[in-house]
Design a protein that fits this description.
Length: about 375
Amino acid sequence: MEPVGIYLHIPFCASKCPYCDFYSLPAREEAMDRYTQALTRAIANCPYPAREVDTIYFGGGTPILMGPKRLERILDALTQRFTVDQKGEITLEANPAATLLEPLTALRRAGFNRISFGVQSAVAEQLKLLGRRHTIQMAEQAVNQSRQAGFDNISVDIMMGLPGQTLEDGQVTADFCMGLGVEHISAYLLKIEPGTPFARRYTQPLEEELPAQLYLQTVAQLEAAGYRQYEISNFARPGRESRHNLKYWNCDHYLGIGPAAYSYWENRRFGFPRDLEGFCAAKDPWALASDWDRGGDFEEYVMLRLRLNEGLVFTQASARYPHCDLRALQNRAKPLAAHGLLTLDENHLALTPQGMLVSNEIITRILG
């Protein structure tokens, strides 16, 4: 059986960004101590087979706020419960404003080997708009200190389509991130999520044409600098793709642990409620997890694979789903290929960068 991935949700932040709808709460010492205990208890009592694990992802929230001792304790619990591949990918999300050399060195020593920073922009006014606590100088220092600490696999996030953002702003941000020499860059178009301060502030739809131009410009910039686009929003130096996130897009197995974390296991999708107190109080946190739906059918596989530049490889799809109707799918794709929204040949089907801008509509039409 193939190795699995594990995602741990660390729901603590120093402050809430106005665009964010991820589940997070203020980072208080007592709460983080209680959560560490609850998380290690959940790991120890995991009811699923102790398969080999080759990717671990600490997401949030701002996981680095937990500090090296708590994070190392959680990682130790994982290595005791599962067989963790010694060459596995272990990622930690971090905020440049919460990063110092000493804890980074301790985390690297503990086994973390990949770090991801939410840089978002290299324009000071946009960082303020986004509610970010760091400066451009802090972002550069965080990456440099990570190198000093021994990290050789660093990712940064940037956002496009911000209110008031120009093409020049987008170019400045992409140039800045490439100049940091990182191995991986995630570039996301801003989505206004319901219930966030941004949703209350921006009640009218933002301009659509400029974000599309920003996206295509960023794709071209990054690829020209050697960052290969391998997914709609992700670019990497060769061999530095996020192994953990590829599990999501390949419909591979993974377990999510913690409030708001979800899993895909044996054709089931299930998750924990967004309730830190309930998770910490539960004797058996796994009893809180509920099924969302069945997963892993052909339609879902197509949807996820078309997020990848590699796209849908027909031999792989037919081996996994022997009764799938690939011919009908190919026929529905031909008109879209003629309009430059996807590439189609006898071996595979993949979206072009222009197609990725309207991926949901295209996938719906392909699936009929």
